[in-house]
Amino acid sequence: MIRKWITVFVFFPVWAQVPTSVTWSTDKLEQAKHYWESMHESAVIVLDDGHQIVSWGPTEHKIKLSSVRKSLLSMMFGPHVTHGTIDLDATLAELGMDDMPPLSDQEKMATVRMLMQSRSGIYHDYVGGSPRMKESQPARHSHAPGTFWYYNNWDFNALGTIFEQQTGLSIGDGFDRVVAKPIGLKDFMPGDVYYVDSGESRHRQYHFRMNARDLAQVGLLMLRRGTWEGASVITPDWVDTITTSYSTTHHNTGYGFMWWIADKGVLFEDVKLPDGSYAAFGAMGKFLVVIPEYKLVIVHLQMVEWPDNYAHLPPSEVPNRATDENNRKIVGHLIQLLLNARET
Fold first, then answer.
1. Domain ranges, residue 88
2. Which residues have a Cβ under 8 Å from the Cβ of 212 and sit 6 or more positions away?
3. How far is it, in rounded angstroms, from Cα 32 to Cα 341?
């Protein structure tokens, strides 16, 4: 078989300012595409230093990002922390934060930083999540603030409340102001953020609807350490802060400020990634992966949504979480095939 290579000079509009020759194997990209075609319908984009290598599926279709929302919120905190609007070391007591039923005095000692790291020690009922998350939730008051990592929707939802309380902006307007407008997202609108409420907690669950091409552009901003066309949108220090690991998780990955961090190369099963790689994960096949060492951004958005109020659905209509865990393995294999297509 003749080995085929392509030299890529394909750009997303405005994204790549300086053409760079990038060599990929067309045969191996075809192998990756063949595997992708066997998967559930999804949109995939691969950018190599801002150059489009892959654009497969309905990349213009907006879909609920599920837990990718948390990583986007983490980005939004940056300028407000830099300007002093949000203090990472402020306690919930100092911010006047509570819930129903009320938080204990110990729980109110948790800081914004601890919530960002998912280490608050607050095991209160929360809006959203999955059956597995709720089953694995520790007992109330079983860990002091800052001492234990648990993937905690209470923390993530309360951070949405804190952002809106401290900035006076809705999450949709905040993302539009901090990220979308400065980098020129073509499709995102503030109304693409919506809320889910219930009687379980005062703190609403916020959700983003976004398409793959906009999400890839967000990933490129992260790859460029918050700089866009010479302007600092998010400071490099903040990008470093949120993509540094502070905990080891049940997936044997690291965890930063609402970003999953490659720990000894582990983000996906059977895929070895360079140190410094990180990702945003969402239920039902939503992934944004940034690999700084390779200058790569990879987006995979499966065209299936986790239901907003699964607790009110009959069991037959609740997605199988085991299937969702399998998505991680399947997408991991796709990522490995894509990495195999790079010239080394």
1. 25-340
2. 43, 44, 45, 57, 58, 59, 60, 61, 299, 300, 301
3. 8
Tokens of 39: 């998967």
In a domain, 315, yes or no: yes
Is 10 a member of any domain? no
- Give the list of residues 6+ apart from residue 39 with CB closer than 8 angstroms, or none: 302, 330, 334
Per-residue pLDDT tens for 209-223? 999 999 999 999 999
Task: Tell me if 56 is assigned to some domain.
Answer: yes
CATH number at residue 268: 3.40.710.10
Taking the alpha carbons at both ends of the chain, their separation in whole angstroms is 20
pLDDT tens digits along 40-67: 999 999 999 999 999 999 999 999 999 9
Residue 6 has pLDDT above 90, yes or no: no
Question: Which pair of tokens denotes residue 41?
Answer: 């319908």
pTM here is 0.93
pLDDT at position 134 is 82
Q: What is the count of structural domains for the chain? A: 1
d(CA 280, CA 100): 30
